[in-house]
Amino acid sequence: MPTLAKPPVSADREISAAGLLAALAGHADKALVFSCAGRDVRPGYHVTEVKSGRFEALDCGGNPEAWQETFIQLWDVPPQPGRDVMRVGKFVAIMRKVSERIPYDAGAKLTFEVSDGTSAIRIMRASAVEIATDAVRVALEPRPASCKPRDRWLVQEPERAASGCCASARAQACCG
């Protein structure tokens, strides 16, 4: 019976690289299966690159934003003769090698870029990790766009309601 690993997930359903690696710990010999868009990424998938970046932006409310992000690109291709699905241990070794050569913040936002080499890259995030007897399954879901001023307001709204404050969403104007 599969069990659901509980890696640290932020309020917006994000699993960081550290959270993913913690969930994978102790399962080196198991197959690592990624699933997205209602199907498994094919067993011949390949981690084509891991990249890290620091981003600075101005949101639609004129607020400066800054964050770190780690990207793992999966090439969703059919298996070649003699190649099976990647094992957890190999994936962890890839991430270790990246950390030795390119510093990245393991607690940063983790984004998966998934493509078959022909179709456009799909931008995904890890949303759940399931540990089964012979495999670890990582569910990927599309990363939605968001309005950061609205997101901040939604987080603060329960606090306002609890304190009796009647501020409206207009108090945190966006797009202007």
Structure description:
The protein is an alpha+beta fold and 176 residues long. It folds into two domains: 143 residues, no CATH class; 31 residues, no CATH class. Helices cover 22% and strands 35% of the residues. The protein contains three helices and eight strands; from the N terminus they run βαββββαβββα. Strands 1, 2, 3, 4, 5, 6, 7 and 8 form an eight-stranded mixed β-sheet that branches. β6 and β7 form a beta hairpin. The longest helix is centred in the last third of the chain and has 16 residues. The N and C termini lie far apart (52 Å). The mean pLDDT is 86.
Q: What's this, in brief?
A:
With about 180 residues, the protein is α+β, with helices and mostly antiparallel strands. It is built from 3 helices and 8 strands, in the order βαββββαβββα. Strands 1, 2, 3, 4, 5, 6, 7 and 8 form an 8-stranded mixed sheet that branches.
Keywords:
eight-stranded mixed beta sheet, 3 helices, 22% helix
Q: What does the secondary structure layout of this molecule look like, with pairings?
A:
Layout: E1 3-5, H1 17-24, E2 31-36, E3 39-40, E4 46-58, E5 64-75, H2 88-101, E6 109-115, E7 122-131, E8 135-142, H3 148-163
Parallel strand pairs: 2-8, 5-6
Antiparallel strand pairs: 1-7, 2-3, 4-5, 6-7, 7-8
How many helices in DSSP terms? Answer: 3
In total, how many beta strands? Answer: 8
Note the beta-strand portion: 25-35%
* Estimated helix fraction: 10-25%
Cα gyration radius (Å): 19 Å
Number of domains: 2
Largest sheet, strands/sense/barrel: 8 strands, mixed
What is the arithmetic mean of pLDDT?
86
Structural class: alpha+beta
